[in-house]
Design goal:
The complex is a heterodimer. By secondary structure, chain A is mostly beta strands. Chain A contains no helices and 12 strands. In chain A, strands 2, 5, 6, 10, 11 and 12 form a 6-stranded mixed beta sheet that branches. A 4-stranded antiparallel beta sheet of chain A has the order 3-9-8-7, with no helix packed on it. In chain A, β5 and β6 form a beta hairpin. Chain A is globular and about 45 Å long. Chain B has no helices and 11 strands. In chain B, strands 2, 4, 5, 6, 9, 10 and 11 form a 7-stranded mixed beta sheet that branches. In chain B, strands 1-3-8-7 form a 4-stranded antiparallel beta sheet, with no helix packed on it. In chain B, β4 and β5 form a beta hairpin. The chains are: A mainly beta, B mainly beta. At the A-B interface, β5, β6, β10 and β11 of A face β5, β9 and β10 of B.
Chain lengths: 113, 115
């Protein structure tokens, strides 16, 4: 079945460091791919998405490119801030009719000043 | 603020009890999804409703049930609660039943603690 694998955390960085969080997927068909973020004590927020191969999603300085050849959707940011400290979830949307989200386990990011 | 509301924010109850979680989707959204987030299982899809009809089922226990009402709000009913049901329950909504550009927006969640 479809699945998402994320790099394990926690990830700890200093402010202004470069961030990469790896995400790979297994899916039949052509799923859409998402990154959601969960700030401490809050719900899930959509960070960015890509709906077809080679699409690049971007938001708030974060980027991820849908790579079908490597079945990956790695999240990157050039310069992280303390306010980026959160848990990041990679997810794919089933290519079937219901589009339920299948999730990675989440990667916790802590950014120190 | 995603526009999806969930009540209550916190719920503490005892084993064997029954609770109801409520979700109001964003204005104009017809689909509602329920997810469970627990420490051991991560985020798991439970069930989806579209315009009042059940659309898809995931890892939802038989003790759990849901419905979507004519005004499109949804309720998730959890009965015969066990300690392992303690989790964060999220509701999400989207415009349609699915499609490449259909995006799910999440509510703040209901934290259920079963003692």
């Amino acid at each position: 079945g479809n699945s998402v694998t994320q790099m394990e955390g926690p990830v700890t960085l200093s402010e202004e460091a470069f961030l990469t969080i790896n995400c790979t997927y297994t899916a039949t068909g052509y799923p859409s791919l998402f990154w959601y973020v969960q700030y401490p004590g809050e719900g899930l927020q959509l960070l960015l998405k890509a709906t077809k191969a080679d699409d690049k999603g971007s938001n708030k300085g974060f980027e991820a490119t849908y790579r079908k050849e490597t079945t990956s959707f790695h999240l990157e940011k050039g310069s992280v801030q303390v306010s980026d400290s959160a848990v990041y979830f990679c997810a794919l949307s089933d290519a079937g009719n219901n589009r339920k989200l299948i999730w990675g386990l989440g990667t916790s990011l802590a950014v120190n000043p | 603020d995603s526009g999806v509301t969930q009540t209550p924010k916190h719920l503490i109850t005892a084993t064997g009890q029954r609770v109801t979680l409520r979700c109001s989707p964003r204005s104009g959204d017809l689909s509602v999804y329920w997810y469970q987030q627990s420490l051991d299982q991560g985020l798991q899809f439970l069930i989806q409703y579209y315009n009042g009809e059940e659309r898809a089922k995931g890892n939802i226990l038989e003790r759990f049930s849901a419905q979507q009402f004519p005004d499109l709000h949804s309720e998730l009913n959890l009965s015969s609660l066990e300690l392992g049901d303690s989790a964060l329950y999220f509701c999400a909504s989207s415009v349609a039943a699915g499609g490449p550009t259909d995006t799910q927006y999440f509510g703040p969640g209901t934290r259920l603690t079963v003692l």
